[in-house]
## 1
Amino acid sequence: ALTAGIVGLPNVGKSTLFNAITKAGAEMANYPFATIDPNVGMVEVPDSRLARIDEIIPAKKIVHTTFEFTDIAGIVKGASKGEGLGNKFLENIRQVDAIVHVVRAFDDENITHVSNKVDPLDDIDTINMELVLADLDSVNKRYARVEKIARTKDKDALAEFALLQKIKPVLEEGKAVRSIEFNDEEKKLVKSFFLLTSKPVLYVANIAEDDMADPEASEYYQQIKKFAEDEGSQALAVSARTEEEIAELPDDEKQEFLEAEGVTESGLDRLIRASYKLLGLATFFTAGGKETRAWTFKAGMKAPQVAGVIHSDFERGFIRAEVASFEDLDKYGSMQAVKEAGRLRLEGKEYVVQDGDIIEFRFNV
Ligand code: GDP
């Protein structure tokens, strides 16, 4: 499964946020906790479309799709040189598909900051620099090796060498590989380098509870947001401590609590949604059986592959997919009406599934 790794300096609120995630996940009915790694937290992806589908095509239960976060131990300066849990830390980041970078954006004299002052940009730089150095290390090693092979005019080696020549100076400037624009071929190749700074990042500002109603007013959040924008990344403000409290509340009290705080949606829900998007994930639905259910697929996947998300037999024996969009079901109010409007589609092997598709797969067993 695709996973987003939570990283950040010590004492910025990572564990607090991770606890909120785990607690929210603990309420999920069907989750086999026993098999899960303690560093992995599962949450349901909030999606209001499920309730609407279930209203139109009632089933015994609603099943949300899930999303995985991995808690990665705190990074310190020098990690790329093996300081602290340096190597293990970098190895863990290598395993994740996207990075959720938590940055301290609250003042609190009682909570020590590793560098004794709250300075979001300096904090971001500390972590990013360790990742850049680690990448520079792998690029340099590869560079020397590929340069030799490229001299033999080997086509693949030449392409790889050209790409390394593009990446190396950017890293030497202290910038992330994700800030470089690549064409499709380069993108494929870059992926095979497994560089840490080529992964997508979501910067999460851990703001003070008082700033929750109006995060934009937080100077710290503004700094983080500006940095993210310049890099082509996204930023989000949450109060980790509040999220942990919210996660412990029963559902009906949750809404009340959020209203009292002056917000409509919990920060955790926004975080889940943003991370889901960051990973290029999308949702399709199945309905009409015992359950109304949301499933995750990777945007761009074709119908047979998507069928395989449900069961590998569905992929192997794929014949076709009967597809209605959520918008149409919502608009026409029943599958029958969607069909009568000529909006129920029969799609084949080449169909690129869209977010919000409600699908019934036809397959051979
Ligand atoms: P980690 O080292 O990044 O995992 O940080 P923790 O989650 O352990 O948090 C460090 C300390 O900061 C703990 O005492 C938390 O209770 C506190 N903390 C976390 N989030 C907030 C917050 O939003 N506001 C305040 N005032 N304290 C927080």
## 2
Amino acid sequence: MECDPRAHGGRDPRNVSLAVLTDSPAVEHLIGALRQLPGVGKRSAERLALHLLTAPGGEAQALCDAIAQACRKIKRCSICCDLAEVDPCSICADDRRDRSTVCVVEQPSGAMAIEAGGVYRGVYHVLHGVLNPLAGIGPSELTVDRLLERVKAGGVKEVIVATNATAEGEATAMYLTRRISPLGVTVSRIAHGVPMGGGLEFADGLTLQHAIEGRTALPGA
Ligand code: ZN
């Protein structure tokens, strides 16, 4: 049974500074790993580490198990490269989806955001990043070849590039246009509604609906 120090008038260990543990390489390693998570800064990482180290009821082990199980079961769909527990994923396996229209997104979160809008009936392709030469990310680090294989296999009439409205997202859209347009497939780009510098996951469903409906064709190479 877990001992709650508050019940005995002691201080809640979760309010104790982590300073006493900073000479522990194991704790430093944990904090460093937590800081790799999106949106988690140094202070948040320290708070999370302290919480995990002091939480009762095997909470930390349950989290470890959940992460391990999810990582073991979730794979990339062999068609669209989105994350899924089955292959092909439920969208690629759905005969009611329009497979002639492929929406290209940077991350699974982009596809999830568009799906939440409930309007788009085509299929997706997840790049798992954007071109970023300064960070050493070129086409081979993304799923560009798999996308080109899908287009070359036939049946695709339009590719909607829904990369984020960032410099890297725009550069990736231009690169994809240069590669796909010569194959005789229309390449369009979402244009309206998505804020400059913003990610798809932060836009509401209506904004994304307008962005999809207001897409514009990109000039070929
Ligand atoms: Zn899929």
